[in-house]
Design brief:
Elements: E1 17-20, H1 24-36, E2 43-46, H2 49-60, E3 69-73, H3 81-89, E4 99-103, H4 109-117, E5 122-125, H5 130-139
Parallel strand pairs: 1-2, 1-3, 3-4, 4-5
């Protein structure tokens, strides 16, 4: 299975672009690249799946804004990306939120297939080149 590039325009709302990743270096890089992109949405991060699911509870009560998209790292302690996307998809009110699984270095077709089976809208290998990472963020613009 080829790496499924995210080619759909998914930022149809003003909600935040959410990154769920336990690696502070990856988060810092993503934030800096995001700031260079053309996207106007706020960029917020969570260090784990459980923390992000708590945020979604605030969305349900109107205390937080629904994410425009979720970029979800797969390898996290406590609750990995597969478990997190599965928990997101169990909640009907969040079935419309695009979830992109972000792989650091996996090209295992089984991981990619599992991500889609669990409800992810796509997957993407994390970029290490600033230009390509910026292009990725810009490609999300509606």
């Amino acid at each position: 299975m080829d790496n499924q590039q995210v080619t759909f325009k998914c930022l149809n709302s003003s909600g935040p672009v959410v990154m769920v990743d336990d690696n502070p270096i990856d988060v810092t890089i993503a934030r800096r690249v995001y700031e260079r992109s053309e996207l106007p949405n706020p960029f917020i991060t969570f260090s784990g799946g459980a923390e992000f699911l708590e945020y979604l509870e605030l969305v349900k009560t109107g205390e937080a804004e629904t994410p425009a998209i979720v970029l979800l790292d797969i390898n996290m302690p406590v609750m990995n990306g597969f478990e997190t996307v599965q928990n997101i998809r169990k909640q009907n009110e969040f079935s419309h939120i695009p979830v992109i699984i972000m792989f650091t270095n996996s090209d295992d077709p089984a991981d990619m297939e599992r991500a889609i089976e669990l409800g992810a809208n796509g997957f993407q290998t994390k970029y290490f080149e600033i230009e390509k990472y910026t292009e990725f963020f810009n490609s999300l613009k509606a």
